Amino acid sequence: MSRDGARRPARSHAWIGGGLLLFAGASFAAPALVIVPARVDLGVLEGDVAVPFGFTLRNDGDEPLLIREVNPTCGCTVVFLADSLLAPGEIVPLTGAFHSRKLEGSVLKTILIETNDPARPRAVAILRVWVQRELTLSYESVDFGSFDAETIKEEKILIRPSAEIALEILGVEAPPERYQCWIEDGEKPGDRVLHVTLLPQREGIVLADTIRVRTNVKNRETIALPVRGHARGKRSG
Q1: Burial label, 23 (beta-carbon count in 10 A; 0-12, 13-18, 19+)
Q2: CATH topology (fold) of 30-132
Q3: Could you report the per-residue pLDDT of 171-213, keeping only the tens digit for each?
Q4: pTM metric for this prediction
Q5: d(Cα 110, Cα 130) in Å, to the nearest integer?
Q6: What dotted CATH number matches 135-232?
Q7: Which of 73, 90, 132, 155 shows a CA-CA span of 20 to 30 A to 10?
Q8: Which of 112, 41, 50 is nearest to 76 (CA)?
């Protein structure tokens, strides 16, 4: 295999008179899985719905391809494969349905496909979707991870209302000794973006705060965002 994933002819050899001769251009027969497309974007889904999707699996090799397992990463995705054995050049549809229940915001799901392709025995098909609720956040928490105590860090949270809601941000509450927060308009009309700037902190401190965003949306009047992170010492060298 080359770095770009293309199959390169292997070299065969033979011993003649005690010497080794190499013959370029000889190749070993093998199956080769191709997923088309590699990623399916389901767009924006409103509320709890189920939508169909489809991939095509193709054998680009010169030996039969055996599809041993097809496993979605969670119960929100179900799949159906019409055939598990593909002759060279043959294709088979991989169809299914995605259920948005209990999900919101940006969602990425994968389908693991295990085959007898020696170059790629475990391949992944990807589903992407945005699940829109009455009020949807890109993230439900603010995670700064492990950071240098003396640095200033910033994270952003997208707040997106459904089409029928005129969102108003009435206030943001956060410990002033740690954070500076402000709201700006997003790229899409109606969107708001919460900026959270973490000020320099004491070395070793573990963040365990909550930032609260007050809105005019019924049942989401207060959005509580846990903040996580750990301030490490300044790296030497």
Answers
A1: exposed
A2: Immunoglobulin-like (2.60.40)
A3: 999 999 999 999 999 999 999 999 999 999 888 899 999 999 9
A4: 0.70
A5: 15
A6: 2.60.40.10
A7: 90
A8: 50
